[in-house]
Structures are given as C-alpha cells and as structure tokens.
Amino acid sequence: MIATFALYLVAGDALVGFAEMNSYISGYAQTRGGGISTLVTAMMREAPEKITVGLSGSVVVAIVGAILFALRDESRGGIQLLQFMLAALALLVVSLVVEGKYYPYQIARLQLCASVVSAYSIVKAVRYLWHRRDDMYVRIVGISMLALALVFSPITNWFWFTAAPVALRLARGDRAFDAYFDRMSFYYPRSELLRVGDYIRASYPKGIRVLTLSSIGGLVLYHSGSIPEHRIYHTCFLLGSISPPQWREEIRRYALEQRPEFIVAQRGDLIFDQTGTNAASITMIDTLGLREMMDRDYTIATETGTTQLVVYRHNDARTSKPSAP
After folding, report:
1. Given CA atoms 66, 71, 75, 78 in this order, what sign does their dihedral have?
2. Which end of the chain is more exposed for a tag (fewer CB within 10 A), N or C?
3. Is the confidence at residue 57, as pLDDT, over 60?
4. Alpha-carbon span 261 to 204, nearest angstrom
C-alpha cells in the first residue's frame, strides 16, 4: 500500500504538493488555542446553542440518568461501565487540552462516551419505569422524560433545520428562508453572502474572476458563481509562518498577473489556532505585496456588516457597473 501511494505521488506529479501540505500540517499541529481554561470557556460558549438546537441536551440528561440508574443497579455491570466511560472521557478531555484546539467539531469527540452511557441509561430507565407503571408518580416521570427526550432528539433538529425552513420558503419565499437561517448562522449570514454574490454576478455575467482573501472564501465563490482559477481560497492556508511560502507566492502572482475583476477580503476573521497568528485575512493585501496594485487599480464597491467582507472592484470595468447592494 505504501509503495502504491509513493508511486501515485511520483506518477501523478503530486510529490511537491504532498511535501508542502505535510509541512503545513506539521506547523498546524504545533499551534495551540489555549489550555484547559480555554476549553471550559469554549464549551460554555457553545452550550446554549447545543442545548437548544443540538444533541447535547439529550446527552446531558442521559448522563445524569445513567449515573442515577447505575447507582441503583444491583449488579456491578452498570458501575463498571460508568467507571470505564468516565475514564475514557477524561482521556478525551486530555487529548483536547494537548491538541489545544476547541472548535465544536473537535469538542464533539466527547459525545462518544456520552452516547454509550446514554444508550445504557435508556434501557435502564425503560425497565425501571415499566416495572412500576401502575404508580401514578412513575407515569408522570416517564411521560416527562419522554417529552424531554423528544424535545432534544434528532427529530427536533430535523424539524428546525429541514421541515420548518422548507415550509417557510414555500409559503413566504426566499427572503423569509434566508432570514430564518440568518438567525442561526450569525457568523456568516446567508443574506449577506447572497447580496455580495448577486452584486458580483450582475457585474460580470460571464468569465468572472474572483480572488478571495477570506476564511469563508468558498461561500463567496459559490454565491457569486465563480469557479476559482487558483488552488487556495481559504486564508488559513496563507496566514502565518506555518504556511509554505510557495502558496503565498502562487496567490500573489495570480493577483498581479490576472488582475481579477473582484478581490474579496475579510476583516475580523481571527483564527489563531489554525494559523498561529492573530492577523485578519485582509492583512494579506499587504503581506502579499498587493497594496500598490489595490490602491491604483481597485475601488471598494461594497462592504458587509456581520461577515466584514470588503469587496474590491477593478477600475477597468468592461460592463456597466451595477449599484452596490
């Protein structure tokens, strides 16, 4: 297998790219977002959303229930399972602290243990309640637990993220649909991305070229209908000393030689644990040596609020300029 992979790298002319990416990953692994205090802060910051629209609410309830039922278990099976899962959970927390990165998808590893414990909890709870089903108090508790489980179950997620927005779109149109998701995706509202995309599309219906210096460059390109001519459109691969200089040179050369119709940069997208620096994407204009070209050949056409996107338009417009959104 190793020989086949090596043959692919050589035959596919991918050896240089593999070495560059390996260099980047090595640097990325060494960047740290903080210690245990940062982890606790990150988990507390994510808690409200996870409890209301995620699965963490059911996981928390399941863990508490598992502990209670394990303590009532006459056999040692429940206690042993709980002890093993708590030990595994501690190891996963340690792995998070060592890694030093606390995005939601990294914290999600903790749900591995929670899922096992919650499955055990459900079985024990159902058995306990069934044997005492004639007790009115037990019935009330059982119905309450069922209602709580439904509220924090994937069924609720399906309703809020699929059924409700689809029904809203059919009833009230695209604007209502976009506004609905804007309330959930406050980091990059869909309505702002659509306004930027529509503006760019209206400017150059065909042959559009857009260079993105942004941590959401892929979304900008998608909504503007632009197919990137360059490999890198997420600035986590460009910012900071961990990025191979060849990648920055590739983007610099593309900007200077191709002079794309639009350059979309972003302020305030600080991603230290991915880049090793607190610089925003818009600083790449100076880092890549594009300031002189930008001041001479480009004008700010529009800016957005929440996403802090700055849309630069080339002064040599080949079609009529639409009004800025």
Report:
1. positive
2. N
3. no
4. 8
Q: How far apart are CA 90 and CA 70, in angstroms?
A: 19
Tokens of 266: 């972003």
Q: Mean pLDDT check: name the lowest of 186-190, 206-210, 263-267, 306-310.
A: 186-190
Rounded to 10 degrees, the C-alpha dihedral 131/135/136/140 comes to -30
Which residue is associated with the tokens 């959970």? Answer: 89
pLDDT: which is higher, 233 or 153 = 233
The amino acid that residue 203 corresponds to is: S
**CA-closest candidate to residue 20, choices 243, 211, 283:** 243
Backbone angles phi, psi at 213, to 5 degrees: -115, 80
DSSP sequence for 23-80: HHHHHHHH-----HHHHHHHHHHHHHHHHHHSSHHHHHHHHHHHHHHHHH-SSSHHHH
Sorting pLDDT into bands at 50, 70 and 90, what band is 319? Answer: very low
Q: Is the dihedral of CA 20, 26, 30, 33 positive or negative?
A: positive
Phi and psi, residue 293, nearest 5°:
-65, -40
